[in-house]
Amino acid sequence: MQVPSPILELKGLRKSYGAIDVLHGVDLSVFPGELVCVVGPSGSGKSSMLRCCNRLEQSTGGQVLVDGVDITQPNVNINTVRQQIGMVFQQFNLYPHLDTLGNVTLALRKVQGKPRGEADKLGMAALERVGLADKAKAYPAALSGGQQQRAAIARAIVLEPNLLLFDEPTSALDPETVGEVLKVMQELRESGMTMLVVTHEMGFARAAANRVIFMDAGSIVEEGPPEEVFGAPKHERTRAFLARYTGGA
Amino acid sequence: MESLDLFLQTFFNLEIAARYWPDILSGAGITIGLSIVVTITGLALGLALALLRALQRTWLSLPIIAFVDVMRALPPLVILIIFFFAFPLIGISMSAFTATWLSLSLVLAAYAEESVWGGILSLPRGQSEAARSTGLTWWQTMTSVVLPQAVRIALPPLTNRVISVSKNVALGSVVALSEVLNNAQSATSNAGNPTPLTMAALAYLVIFIPVMFGARRLENRLQWRV
Questions:
Q1: pLDDT digit string (tens) for A20-65?
Q2: Fewest CB within 10 angstroms: A39, A166, A185, B176, which?
Q3: Count of CB atoms situated within 10 Å of the CB of A239
């Protein structure tokens, strides 16, 4: 049987800010259709790793291969690559001067040059997928946190990316709106979307992920199916971290 | 009653007003025209400088900061005098209109740059990161996401500055520009009566109160819609 090639492959990824190393050579592969959750304590380098995947952060060593192309190379057109990699941020980062549909369609119109009518149609379809079609004309300030994050997901998926990066998508949300965002993410997973998710939602990681990565101090400490990482962690550091999060051993 | 009569005869002398209103009107025309071109060139240059500064290249930012600080530190009158009286000594002569236009445009550009730059700085970094993450170029991010927000934030200080710089067109009287205040002063000397100055004051009110209304309307219209 032929092994599918990974959509995203990190090889010896390093990142340092001045003298401070935040990633010490991370190796990771994400395969088509997979949902990979990255968990770990704050400052473990999870977000830095994620942000290196679309070059929002410049890595200082190693490779980031997207469909086999090393995007850390300066000759790569990063703007083309980024259309293939959607990103959802902790703080949503919706554009406050545009309505929801305008947020979703901006890149369609500016980057892909689609006429407004066509962009609006695709934008509405994306809003439909996240259950926000009725908020198309609302401005971000009028949306709840959960709605804003769903709009941000629509903005990312409207470009039909091969890979979606989530940077703690529920950490800024009220507890009661976390569920609606996780539900949308679950539906995306069922539709076959490949996702790399940095999260503190252990319940979601356990229920939805194909693989869980535990990171600490800039390295991957442990990775495996969720039942293994959560049920029988091999490393002391994983156990200590999970104990703090689940309130037991 | 006699003192009121004297007051009216001095400041609201209809006979003198009738004689000098064409001068006041042509002066007002110069003031309005110059205000408009100064506003256009000053804001355009200020916006361009803020954009260049946003490139975050030290060799670009440092001269911009130096320019902005010098222009804001010097009284506009000094800049005007340099253009009109000093530049001819190095072979660059210009009309009173050009000298006033250039000096006020540079002053407005300096303030506009600072206001827009402040607006750009006040935006969360996530705004441009989100735009870049969807494949927008730096320039597209600036024009579609950053500047529309930065300019809204900068609008109140910008409109204040436009009004204040436009009133500084009156400094042109120093270089014999026949704007409204200069014409009013000449008329006052000729007539031996300050009624033309009263007319100039009225002209300022007629010119600038609508500008202030317009500015307020613009600010309200561009508030975040919810």
A1: 999 999 999 999 999 999 999 999 999 999 999 999 999 999 999 9
A2: B176
A3: 15
**Hey, are the CB atoms on A106 and B127 less than 8 Å from each other?**
no
Tokens matching residue B67: 């320019």
Q: Are B140 and A142 an interchain contact pair (Cβ–Cβ within 8 Å)?
A: no
Q: Which residues of B126-155 are buried (b: 16+ CB within 10 A; e: fewer)?
A: ebbbbbbbbbbeeebbbebbbbebbbbbbb
| Tokens found for residue A135 | 């908020």
Its pTM stands at 0.88
Mind listing the pLDDT tens digit for each residue in A200-220?
999 999 999 999 999 999 999
Could you tell me which chain B residue has the CA closest to the CA of A79?
B135
Contact of A27 with A11, CB cutoff 8 Å: yes
Residues of chain B contacting A, Cβ within 8 Å: 124, 126-127, 129-137, 140, 144-145, 148-149, 152, 224-226
Question: What's the distance, Cα to Cα, between the start and end of chain A in Å?
Answer: 39
Contacts of B116 (CB under 8 A, 6+ apart): B46, B47, B50, B147, B150, B151, B154, B158
pLDDT of residue A247: 59
Rounded distance between C-alpha atoms, residue A113 and residue A103, angstroms: 15
The distance of Cα A183 from the centroid of its chain, to the nearest Å, equals 15
In the block, residue with structure tokens 């050579």: A25
- Coil, strand, or helix at residue A28? strand
Mutate to test the interface with B, among A93, A105, A109, A135 (most CBs of B within 10 A): A93
User: Which residue in B has a C-alpha nearest to residue A142's C-alpha?
Assistant: B226
CA angle (A134, A135, A137) in 5-degree steps: 110
Residue B143 Cα, gap to closest chain A Cα (Å): 10
Chain A residue at shortest CA distance from B148: A97
Instruction: Give the DSSP letter of residue B224.
Output: P
Q: Pairing relation of β-strands A163-167 and A8-17?
A: unpaired
A139, closest residue in chain B (CA to CA): B226
CB within 8 Å: A54 and B131: no
CB contact under 8 Å between A95 and B140, yes or no, is: no
Residues of B in contact with A159 (CB under 8 A): 134-135
Q: Is the ipTM of this complex over 0.90?
A: yes
